[in-house]
Amino acid sequence: MATLGVDGLISGLDTTSLINNLMQAEAVPQTRLKTTLSTTQRSVTGLQSVNTKMAALATAAAKLARPETWTASVATSSADAVGVTASSSALPGSVTFDVKRLASARSVVSSDTFALNDQKMSGYPIEVRDATGNVLASVTPVDGSLSAVVSAINGAANSGVRAAAVQVSPGVYRLQVTATATGLSGDFSITGLTGAGTLDTLSQPQDALLHVGPATGGYDVTSPTNTVRDLLPGLTMRLAKTGDGVTVDLRSDPASTADAITAMVDAANAVLAEIATQSSTGVTNADGKRTGAGPLAGDSLLRRLAGQVVDAVATGIGGASPALLGLTTTRGGRLTLDRAVLLDRLASAPDDVRSLLSPTALGTDAVGTRFTTLAKNATDVVSGSLTTAIGARTSTISDLNDRIGTWDVRLSTRRATLQKTYSALEVSLSGLKNQSSWLAGQIAGLR
Q1: Cα–Cα distance for residue pair 366/64, rounded to 1 Å
Q2: Neighbours of 243 (CB within 10 A)
Q3: 28-63 and 15-26 helices cross at what angle (nearest 10)?
Q4: What is the C-alpha separation between 88 and 71, in angstroms, rounded?
Q5: What is the phi/psi pair of residue 334, to 5°?
Q6: What would the pLDDT profile of 381-400 be if each residue is shown by its tens digit?
Q7: Which of 143, 311, 414, 424 is the residue whose CA sits 20 to 30 A from 438?
């Protein structure tokens, strides 16, 4: 905040500089508090960053506890006309079939043509019925125009159809009504509409038809839509066109499982890297000064967490070592994963891999469960070690801010006192100078 200068007009002293120097000395305790505050704030940021990385490790490790991570499958199709995807619960298998027919929806069009606002139609209410004759919707347009009929049909809930005014030449339209669902179950009929001529069929409703096996044997598979589900458990097929001899395969996908394991190892290394950054003690330069230290240099909590991450892999499990999967530790305190070895083990002994990384038996030791437990103990919002450390430092920050605020008031009062003192000095000196001048005048008059 700007202050009024009191530089000596009488004394000639640079009182502003004098006061600033005095205040700098007076503010040394507050300066130390501000330095401590800055250091503590940086340490909280560092702990929060480690906490975030640890939470990411928990998420990656938890994925290995899901059954679908170990049963992942990949689907392939021999024909572009049939797209395929596999769910997490898909079971391996293979099937060959012919796509004999695609699913389609009923669509009808009026034989008569109209301008949009011609008042030609009547006979209401218009009723839309399903394939068994049940009424799905009953509507009465506001008038007999094509636009009103289209709006009325489309405004009906659960009618199972959509109407459109289709322009067949400039200003000339036909009424077209199409089922919203393909297949025989989406069939419909319309009654109660006169003045539109006949409603001629554009397309018939039909189910998609697949034939599995030879033409003279085998069996048929139907679907009301062109999305066929669970021909093989967990398989979804999307039919684009007809064709013969389409083969679809579902096979296990060890690469997907390996990706999940790699993600966990990467997350663990991210924790170790962040701990190394935040707790680095820096390096000593040629001039003897140390630079590059982290805000949590040498922190015992971070050293302990780093050791636990490494030990989760370095310590054997039930007499076996994660090294059998290509998962090892380095001298530099990092984890490495040989993907080729892992994929080989996933192909030859997937159960062994799973038992080392994330067994199904609750409470059984494994790398994944070790990481999960470690991360929970560190990041738990109530009792986590990182949470507790962050909370303690946050409390310290609050206390430091209070103490710094108190010093602000104290220093402001001290500066005002010094300014008042030096101002009073100038007034006194001014009075003395006036008296000196008067005395000099009196002495001069006596001569």
Answers
A1: 11
A2: 16
A3: 50
A4: 7
A5: -125, 170
A6: 999 999 999 999 999 999 98
A7: 424
